[in-house]
Amino acid sequence: MGKHTCNHMTESLVEKTLLQLSQAGLRVTKQRKALLCTLAVADNPLSAEETHAQLAKGTCDLVTVYRSLEQFEKIGVLQLGVRENGTKVYCLSHGHDHHHHLTCRSCGRTERVDVCMGDELENIGRSFGYTKLTHVMELFGNCPDCVS
Amino acid sequence: MGKHTCNHMTESLVEKTLLQLSQAGLRVTKQRKALLCTLAVADNPLSAEETHAQLAKGTCDLVTVYRSLEQFEKIGVLQLGVRENGTKVYCLSHGHDHHHHLTCRSCGRTERVDVCMGDELENIGRSFGYTKLTHVMELFGNCPDCVS
DNA sequence: ATGAGTGCAAATAGTTTGCAAGCTG
DNA sequence: CAGCTTGCAAACTATTTGCACTCAT
Hints:
Two copies of one chain form a homodimer. Chain A has 148 residues and is an alpha+beta fold. Chain A has helices at residues 8-23, 30-41, 48-54, 62-74, 118-127, and strands at residues 78-82, 88-92, 100-104, 110-113, 131-142. A three-stranded mixed sheet of chain A has the order 4-3-5, covered by helices on one side. In chain A, strands 1-2 form a two-stranded antiparallel sheet. The relative contact order of chain A is 0.13.
């Protein structure tokens, strides 16, 4: 499986995201390109460690992954999630299609859940007078292969 | 503020919860009583460290807090949440009123959000063939006093 | 009395910070 | 060439594990 090359389908997505970086005043480096490429081909949210592990050896230090992912999330190109154990995970915000995930707590298999009541929730937040609202929503369960 | 004594309002709730422990085959110890008492009077979800800090000095080791909270969550008397930074937090499941929280990321102030689309979400999970579904849902924002 | 529960110490996992050197715009 | 970015080392926070001892049932 292509470890550090982007396929045709994800190429334009990465390009578009890199553009967003510049627009946000961040610099485009080979490390960041590689990171975005990895996230673009991932079919589920990745933790910093996992993202790092996907990169060709020597591409980039783990610390850089942490720092970049955090910055990317701040400018909105990545969406933040949490695992049941508290680990932070990130996935590309494909345009405006905010979504969530259903993760098997046994094997890690992940399904995409397009339902999101984020707006509804954030309106509630607004009604309390809160601003800069964000939310985290994750589903966990045992997948069909992990009936355990 | 009453650090380690339960007031009248929370007393019955703690008693009821202790009963649930026995029914689940767990033992009732003075440490666990103290833990539940602390959680019963807390007006927002507490992390293990925070729970421990509320206890009278010497009541119980931090490790015991971790172990107990985890077990309590497993038998359903506590509800698990996550902070934006991944820290796990717990609050008493007052009967069946599953709920969520809106937390100020600056001062920590917390509001209770009674809206929950958990059933809806867990049905989606079931439609994927997943079992033992749980979910985590937390809202974060800046409260009116922390416009920053 | 028997095994669940506890405390203490130590190990882990995930993440953050400091600082000097490197690269982007 | 200014300053954002990176790497390396080290510090930290949250949480887990091993083991002998204690206590609830």
